[in-house]
UniProtKB/TrEMBL annotation:
Residues 419-579 form the Aerobactin siderophore biosynthesis IucA/IucC-like C-terminal domain. Signal peptide: none annotated. Belongs to the IucA/IucC family. It holds the Pfam family FhuF. Residues 143-162 are annotated as: Disordered. It comes from Azotobacter bryophylli. Residues 167-388 form the Aerobactin siderophore biosynthesis IucA/IucC N-terminal domain. This is IucA/IucC family protein.
Length: 598
């Protein structure tokens, strides 16, 4: 069969998907493997580099592999954390060979070859390829629909986007910048991708079942009124479109359907919008987000709602209610988004415990409180990941916000970036560290879990942290007897020891979140980058006394390395996300304090 000719536009978009896949792979490899082992140089001046790289603007990154072979490619910016943006193909030079360019698949095989566990490489290679294909699909359809990523279309006094939150939720074509498979969605057809993915601006109705009320279980607040509003009828229960075929094929579900207790009605009701997490759905007129189970691996995890996660999220909302009220007073502008309800179906009377648990997880829904309409209109909230990423034209998505802020403040863009970063970091660090060190509450404030709101000048004035599934408790603050009312498995899932707790919070706030913010706000300007890290260092130093000078924070301010989660090795070794290791990154805070950026 003669291959279908691809247009220049299609070839260009395929090239963009390739470049981003290479960017993710190499940034992961550099951070988790090559830089800690001294096997990479971020500004190589060697004379034997490929001719293409020697005569181009930018820094040449040189990576030495275990067998003595080398990789070289060009970056137009590098950071104090070793983060790069690559602007050339990677060139490979084997022993006794000349330089040759690699594509993403060849690069992945090369990088994996010397790592332990070769029997595990096949799965990761498949997921890397899947992520590349999905990214390519999104690029073609996002371009075709003229969809703009959040941050590229800015509000003005005369034109305000209807829903800044929705724009930012659905504008994240690239995903996690430091993950080897940021857009992998195993087992999902292209038709289903386009029907239900936020990256292409999807909206869709849920699939519904008429259910005998005796089979429905809910915890916390009663969600039946919300479900009835979405369905347009009472006594119906929904399922995500990607989960419905699994549900209909389940033997226990079939038996219960034969008994007349469950009837499949198909898709109907209000169309909802998928958010950046894919399985969490939003509608501006609803009081809650709905977080569904889907047995699809997104990046590292199969995104099902385990039965104990339904328990723990609602339990945490109740347990943390005093803290949420305290934050209003002690950390104004910083808030957690409650998850006051969960629901599922319980078919245990009609099957084994194992069969019933599978159905419980397939039908599990968590309900997260939405921001009210007045707050959305006033603060124009956005997901942090939609700001600290690239738009479809290759620019940093946050830069239009900074330009607008500079104009409103009447200052230079670099000064606006400094004030913007300080306002944001003060809120994020103040709230996250207060929760950890004063209350033993371990938040997960990474980019996708963080929403920002803005004041009239365009400066961050609100931070909301979401996803209580990822919130943990330090046993010293939350001993077992304090959680005695919870199921033992739920208690176990909630506890995190103090060392893991600090690494998780430090990684999420300082590496994943603020590290990417600094990278994009600095725009390759080393002096501005140092200035921004200095602002963060001053904020951390100021936190020590109010928090009782905790040793972990004191050591960080003195130069202890930053912990960086190993997404690449976690996926390679097929570990649960909870068991991810951490790489020690050089601390940019103390170096920044030796300079003067004012």
């Amino acid at each position: 069969m003669t291959p279908v000719a691809r247009s220049p536009q299609q070839r260009r978009l395929d090239g963009e998907a390739q470049r981003h896949a290479i960017d993710c792979l190499l940034n992961c490899y550099l951070r988790e493997y090559a830089l800690p082992r001294g096997e990479a140089c971020l500004d190589c001046q060697a004379q034997d580099l490929p001719m293409t790289l020697r005569h181009a603007e930018g820094r040449c990154v040189d990576i030495r592999l275990a067998d003595g072979s080398r990789l070289a490619l060009l970056a137009d910016r590098t950071s104090a954390l070793g983060r790069c943006r690559f602007v050339s193909a990677p060139y490979f030079k084997g022993l006794g060979q000349g330089w040759r360019p690699l594509d993403a698949t060849e690069l992945a095989r090369l990088l994996l070859a010397p790592l332990n566990g070769p029997e595990r490489h096949g799965e990761l290679l498949e997921q890397i390829d899947n992520s590349l294909r999905v990214t390519r699909t999104f690029l073609h359809h996002a371009r075709a629909a003229n969809q703009e990523p959040a941050g590229s279309r800015e509000p003005t006094d005369s034109h305000e986007p209807m829903d800044s939150l929705l724009l930012s939720e659905q504008g994240q074509v690239w995903g996690h910048a430091l993950h080897p498979t940021p857009k992998s969605r195993d087992g999902v057809s292209e038709a289903d991708l386009l029907a239900c993915s936020p990256e292409v601006g999807a909206q869709f109705p849920l699939h519904w079942f008429r259910v005998d009320p005796t089979l429905v279980r809910h915890q916390g607040d009663d969600p039946r009124g919300l479900l009835a509003r979405i369905a347009g009828a009472d006594d119906l229960y929904p399922c995500h479109p990607w989960e419905v075929s699994r549900v209909l094929a389940d033997p226990l579900v079939r038996r219960v359907r034969d008994l007349g207790l469950l009837e499949y009605l198909g898709p109907q009701g209000l169309a909802l919008y998928p958010t950046s997490s894919v399985r969490t759905l939003y509608h501006p007129e609803l009081s809650h987000f709905l977080k569904f189970s889907i047995h699809v691996r997104l990046t590292n995890c199969v995104r099902k709602n385990a039965w104990y996660e339904l328990d723990s999220a609602v339990a945490l909302t109740r347990l943390l209610d005093p803290l949420m009220r305290e934050l209003d007073e002690r950390q104004p502008g910083f808030a957690l988004m409650p998850e006051p309800a969960a629901s599922t179906l319980d078919l245990s009377a009609h099957g084994s415990a194992e069969e019933a648990r599978e159905v419980t997880e397939c039908f599990g829904i968590l309900y997260r409180q939405n921001l009210d309409a007045a707050s959305r209109a006033r603060h124009r909230p956005r997901v942090a990941m939609a700001l600290f990423t690239w738009n479809l034209d290759g620019g940093s998505a946050c830069q239009p916000l900074i330009a607008q802020c500079a104009a409103r403040l009447g200052v230079a863009p670099a000064e606006a970036a400094r004030r913007w970063l300080r306002a944001y970091a003060e809120l994020l660090l103040g709230g996250s560290l207060h929760c950890l060190f004063r209350h033993g509450v371990v938040l997960e404030p990474h980019l996708q879990n963080t929403l920002l709101g803005f004041d009239a000048q365009g400066l961050p004035c609100r931070v909301w942290i979401r996803d209580l599934e990822g919130t943990k408790l330090v046993p010293e603050h939350w001993p077992a007897e304090r959680l005695a009312h919870l199921d033992e498995r739920t208690r176990t899932s909630l506890h995190y020891d103090a060392d893991k707790a600090w690494k998780r919070v430090a990684y999420c706030t300082l590496v994943n979140n603020l590290g990417e913010a600094v990278f994009h706000l600095a725009g390759g300007d080393a002096a501005l980058e140092q200035c921004l890290w200095r602002e963060i260092a001053e904020l951390l130093e100021a936190q020590r006394a109010p928090l009782g000078d905790p040793p972990a924070l004191r050591e960080l301010c003195a130069g202890a390395p930053l912990p960086s989660k190993e997404n690449f090795m976690t996926r390679l070794l097929r570990k649960a996300d909870r068991e991810a290791g951490y790489t020690a990154l050089p601390n940019p805070l103390t170096a920044a304090c030796r300079g003067d950026c004012r």
